[in-house]
């Protein structure tokens, strides 16, 4: 693992402070949910809030505290209940059945979090966590930030099935219309470029090693595709034209009955507005916002309709170098703001790249190495970040990944040509 900010002094308070801040945000996000909200599982790809809270806690107990001599777990059953996919650790609750775990209760999971927080903090302050443990602690903090975004994605999917359109984050309505302007283009010069993370700060193993790639040259749009752009695609029968779609994409459109991005609802009358479910309830769609909740299939079809294509992840990384990160998680909003020029954030961006290991890829040692390496198959890379991504978690080399049909994530796109 690359050395990170937590490793400057094994006895420093910075590691404990960072750990405490990350853990506190999860508790803040969950505090707006009832116990009843935190148990159900709306689909196999999603997990209950209670499970997210327990799993991220188990990660620190298993990998950080579990390495300390003589450590006794809070409850040995948690190793089965809250392991996600670590085969090296042992068997686990089947993923589709996480919503069946009603015991321990939500209150008991809160107590579990508090006990592990206390034990980790005490071990840090007493200097009992060595360098390898600090590496795993840092990995655990980034892992928890990932689950904070997943928690919000998953609770949004769950609440969207409630016919009363519940509100998680109350806020004022945004103007439904606003100027987006024409797309500008940034020239990406043909030639050799270096991509991937270096040794400065934290990075996941799938971001490394830094290596040279050949960029064929082209242009990348300076802003994301917006809701207003997407409406024009829909008005031109984009969802009904098979020539725009990959074969699997067209089959998915037909099977799922897609006619708009995820969470959108058709207007009740011909002159009415499309609406979308947000974590602030159902709202009119906003033309100036980046379109989100579209699959790779939809992004690819839109690009073809627009006479363009999706950028490769390497073009994306080269083109956006030095751009500002905007619109990270605001717990009081949890929704994108209008798209802006030469920025990333607000919505994850599909790329044309399959999720594959970089040349010379080396996974983390031990069970933690399963974290990325085992998923490098049948996934597509997304870059950037979203309005659900915790502040400080976005970086230019970050490689998110989902299957092509997925659209419950806050996923959008920008064009290349």
Largest sheet: 4 strands, mixed
How many β-strands, per DSSP? 13
Q: In what range is the share of β-strand residues?
A: 5-15%
Class by SSE composition: alpha+beta
Low-confidence stretches: 1-11
Total of DSSP H or I helical runs spanning 4+ residues: 10
What proportion of the residues is helical, as a percent range? 25-40%
The helix/strand order is: HHHHHEEEEHHEEEHHEEEHEEE
Strand order, biggest sheet? 12-11-10-13
Task: From the alpha carbons, calculate the radius of gyration and give it in angstroms.
Answer: 22 Å
Highlighted features:
417 residues, 10 helices, three-stranded antiparallel beta sheet, alpha+beta, four-stranded mixed beta sheet, 30% helix, disordered N terminus
Folded structure, characterized:
With 417 residues, this protein is of the alpha+beta class. The chain contains ten helices and 13 strands. The chain has helices at 13-30, 49-63, 78-81, 106-125, 131-160, 227-235, 247-256, 296-305, 313-319, 370-373, and strands at residues 185-188, 191-195, 211-215, 218-221, 264-265, 275-278, 281-284, 324-325, 343-344, 348-354, 380-383, 400-402, 411-412.
């Amino acid at each position: 693992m690359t050395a990170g900010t937590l490793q400057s002094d094994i006895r420093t308070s910075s590691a404990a402070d960072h750990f405490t801040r990350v853990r506190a945000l999860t508790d803040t996000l969950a505090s707006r949910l009832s116990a009843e909200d935190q148990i159900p599982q709306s689909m196999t790809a999603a997990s209950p809030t209670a499970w997210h809270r327990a799993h991220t806690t188990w990660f620190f107990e298993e990998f950080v505290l579990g390495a300390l001599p003589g450590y006794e777990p809070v409850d040995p059953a948690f190793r089965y209940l809250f392991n996600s996919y670590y085969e090296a650790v042992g068997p686990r609750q089947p993923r589709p059945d996480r919503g069946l775990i009603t015991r321990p209760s939500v209150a008991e999971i809160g107590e579990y979090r508090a006990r592990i927080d206390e034990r980790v903090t005490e071990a840090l302050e007493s200097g009992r966590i060595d360098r390898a443990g600090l590496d795993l602690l840092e990995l655990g903090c980034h892992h928890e930030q990932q689950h904070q975004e997943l928690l919000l994605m998953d609770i949004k999917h769950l609440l969207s099935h409630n016919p009363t359109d519940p509100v998680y984050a109350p806020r004022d309505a945004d103007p439904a219309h606003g100027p987006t302007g024409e797309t500008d283009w940034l020239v990406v010069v043909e030639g050799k470029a270096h991509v991937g993370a270096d040794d400065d700060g934290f990075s996941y193993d799938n971001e490394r090693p830094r290596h040279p790639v050949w960029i064929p040259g082209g242009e990348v749009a300076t802003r994301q595709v917006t809701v207003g752009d997407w409406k024009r695609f829909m008005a031109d029968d984009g969802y009904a034209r098979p020539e725009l779609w990959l074969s699997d994409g067209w089959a998915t459109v037909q099977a799922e009955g897609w006619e708009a991005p995820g969470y959108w609802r058709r207007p009740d009358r011909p002159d009415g507005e499309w609406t979308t479910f947000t974590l602030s309830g159902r709202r009119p769609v906003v033309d100036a916002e980046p379109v989100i909740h579209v699959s790779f299939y939809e992004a690819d079809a839109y690009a073809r309709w627009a006479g363009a294509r999706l950028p490769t992840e390497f073009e994306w990384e080269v083109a956006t170098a030095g751009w500002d990160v905007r619109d990270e998680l605001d717990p009081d909003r949890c929704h994108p703001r209008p798209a802006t020029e030469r920025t990333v954030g607000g919505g994850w961006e599909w790329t044309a790249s399959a999720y594959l290991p970089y040349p010379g890829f080396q996974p983390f040692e031990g069970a933690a190495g399963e974290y990325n390496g085992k998923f490098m198959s049948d996934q597509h890379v997304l870059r950037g970040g979203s309005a659900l991504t915790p502040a400080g978690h976005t970086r230019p080399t970050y490689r998110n990944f989902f299957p092509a049909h997925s659209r419950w994530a806050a996923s959008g796109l920008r064009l290349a040509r």
